Amino acid sequence: MQKRIYHWIGTCVLLGACRAGAQVSLPTVVDLAVRNSATVRVALADVQRAQAALSESRDAYLPSFNFGSAVGYTYGFPVGQPSVYNIGSQSLLYSFSQPDYIRAARAALNSAQLGLKDNEEQVALDTALAYIQLDSDNRQLAALAQEKEYAERLAAIERDRLLAGVDGRMEVTKAELTAAQVDEKSLHLEDDAGQQKQKLAHLTGLPASSFVTDSKSIPASPEFSADDSVEDTLMATNTGIQAAYANAKSKRLISFGDEKQNYRPQFAFGAEYNRYAEFNNYQEYYLRFQHNNFDIGVQITFPIYDASRRAKARESAADARRAGAEADQTKFQTSEQVYSLRHSIKELVVQQRIAELRSQLAQEQLETIQAQLKNGSGSPNAPPVSPKDEQQALIQERERYVDALDATFSMIRVELTLMRSLGRIEDWVRGAAAK
User: Fold this and answer.
1) Contact present, 109 and 47 (Cβ < 8 Å)
2) How many other CB atoms sit within 10 Å of the CB of residue 435?
């Protein structure tokens, strides 16, 4: 209860901060999403359901008590047992199947708990990617706003050069086309940023209109070992695979229990007390009628032949085989995904490096042009540098910067997806929170 109060207070503080336009860090957003997302609430309900099912299977040995009444008028020989009140109790003493059912319920609970953990990791991944993509979109939009300003200046310069007869109409059109392309890219990024805000709002419960990312709260890219055998050693940390095998174990134990229902006896306990009424004329039809009646005993049932139970056992066995095959399929798919992601990172690292070098080269070219524009080229044979060249260099530098941001996000997306497959995504977020 105290934790819930603290969580409620923390959420209220964050809501107030978001309405005020304050920045919200990545670890805070991920923590809120893990607590509040609908996916996690569904998985939590599955855990509660599995806990109740385990209690139900164990409580079969506990006696149940019932109190009732069957008062009614009878004429002639009393065909029923009208009683003023009755008290009954019954319970299972022993069944060869029930231990298997209890173990199956315990395995199902373990599967549900692992499924909850797996859903929390998936929500953490979705939230982190949405947050990082929103941050990247905001940075790209800021760069495009500068690029749009440079493109409009270039278009104005080209119009002046057209009036002066230096350049043709085509150069003006090229400059206007550049500005229009910047507008198109900005609209696309604005739409994407809006979608990421909406997604984060659904995950966390915070208002979508007030998300302000904090770039400093995003930790550095994770590092991975170059040894491919790490996939085998870390596969045990994947909660999705563990949940699948726990579910297969539960199905298999249910199959064992259903099979034992056919050939093994079952022992049950029962007790009942009835207080019969006097106005039903029992004493006229029974030699030694008495109002108080009590019975207690043990019921033993020997199943000889039951076609429906045999069919149920075959159905359970098929479910167990299916669950085992699905668990193997989940393991194989995850292993293949880890292998593919690990090798994709190598290519993405090279692409990111190329994008960064292009951005750095564009920055150096811009600095060179600005220096020549200010101090001259230093060579009498070199063509003079004009303001048009400067604006084109500024535009190219912003374009290369945006490309570098795109390449960085593409690599981070694959890296975090790989961490999710290896069960390490929450460790990465918690490491950022600790820093």
Assistant:
1) yes
2) 10
Q: How many CA atoms lie within 13 A of 305 on its CB side?
A: 0
Mean pLDDT in order along the chain per 10 residues (435 residues): 42 47 84 92 96 94 88 71 82 91 96 95 95 95 95 92 86 92 95 94 86 89 68 75 94 94 89 82 76 88 88 94 95 90 91 95 93 74 79 94 95 93 86 58
Contact 64, 272 (CB under 8 A): no
From 97, 137, 130, select the one nearest 30 (Cα to Cα).
130
Q: Can you give the pLDDT at residue 130?
A: 95
Architecture of domain 2-36+96-264+303-434: Up-down Bundle (1.20)
pLDDT at residue 289, as a whole number? 78
Q: Which pLDDT score is estimated for 230?
A: 59
Give the pLDDT confidence score for residue 228 in this predicted structure: 55
Burial class (CB in 10 A: 0-12, 13-18, 19+), 269: middle
CA distances, 34 to each of 51, 77, 116, 121, 383 (Å): 21, 68, 10, 8, 61
pTM: 0.83
- Positive or negative torsion for Cα 184, 190, 193, 194: negative
Other Cβ atoms closer than 10 A to 175: 25
Alpha-carbon gap, residue 57 to 105, rounded angstroms = 7
